Amino acid sequence: MKRRAILAGAVLALVASLAGGAWANRERLMLAFLGAKTEKRTLAEQEALILPHIRVFQPTAGSPPFPAIVQFHGCAGYRPDFMAQWAKVGTEAGFLVIAVDSMSPRGIDREEALSSVCAGKRLIGQERAGDVAAALAAVAARKDVDPARIVAAGWSHGAWSLMDYLALSAASQTPPSLKGEAPAIDPAGVIAFYPYCGEGTWSRLLNWNTKAKVLALIAGADTIVDGAECRARFEAIRQAGTPVDLVWYENADHVFDDAGLVGGEFAHYYGAAAAEDAARRYRSFLEAIRSRP
User: Fold this and answer.
1) Fewer CB within 10 Å, N or C, the chain?
2) Could you count the other beta carbons within 10 Å of the beta carbon of residue 210?
3) Nearest partner of 242 among 211, 279, 281, judged by Cα
4) Helical H segments across the chain, by residue range
């Protein structure tokens, strides 16, 4: 079932009761309502929340300061093998890789993540964008990282959160989970695997672009999110001036790159050809960022 209507029925009822122009802005009103109810932390407090739960993967060659990748997992939570699969690609390309676990700090286990986060009932993209802001700020401040060569990579819900962060930053807005000053950090590169781009996303509502180079890897046969909707989003920001390499995998499904699914109940999601092509493009993208002066 596609995750299109992500917002609570009570909020929908509230907005539906409003008239005229207010109804035309229902998504903004819903997001503002949910944002007002979100627990707020300073940037330092947000860093303190997530940093004990990050995993750091050292590059296989080179010397500091290193280019870096910050990885944001999907809605089902941090899966060590899958994050390590992509971290290996990064470390072999000479990048320090930092994988952020957004669920453990909040006490969300896999079962709850599947039933609440994946259903859009908890930790929606605009809230988790606070994790993106905190992680990028913390990584940029590391002495072993070159802050001019940071790549942010997100998968599914992680890509949604990353895109909401970029959209809000471009509009000079702070994620609703943060309070006080939160400097916007435009990464050098953004990699988005099969994100959610539908109702309740700031990346859909705001006209935005970013200085970052973008690699968007979209599953054309996605049974979880609407791939065509995301393709339209990336085409729009490309027209607005963002350098976007938009890749459309016609026959690929959600999580097509997860080799850990092979041999299991969800093996049908894995697409070897698309996964191999995505890995090749991922490596080439990183090489272009690493080679920057």
Assistant:
1) C
2) 22
3) 211
4) 9-16, 21-24, 26-37, 43-50, 80-92, 110-112, 125-140, 157-170, 202-205, 227-239, 272-290
One-letter amino acid at 9 equals: G
CATH architecture of 9-290: 3-Layer(aba) Sandwich (3.40)
Name 100's Cβ contacts closer than 8 Å, sequence gap at least 6.
Answer: 50, 53, 54, 70, 71, 72, 73, 131, 135
**DSSP class of 254:** T
CB 73 within 8 A of CB 126: no
Rg (CA), the chain: 18
- What tokens were used for 232? 């339209």
Q: Which of 39, 7, 45, 43 is nearest to 26 (CA)?
A: 7
96-100 sheet: strands from edge to edge = 54-57, 96-100, 66-72, 145-155, 189-193, 213-219, 244-249
Residues contacting residue 211 through CB under 8 Å, at least 6 positions apart: 186, 242
* Pairing label, strands 145-155, 244-249: unpaired
With H, G, I as helix, E, B as strand and everything else as coil, classify residue 187.
coil
Q: How do residues 197-243 score in pLDDT, each as one tens digit?
A: 999 999 999 988 888 999 999 999 999 999 999 999 999 999 999 99
Residue 153: CB atoms within 10 Å: 27
pLDDT digits 0-9 by tens, 71-112? 999 999 999 999 999 999 999 999 999 999 999 999 999 999
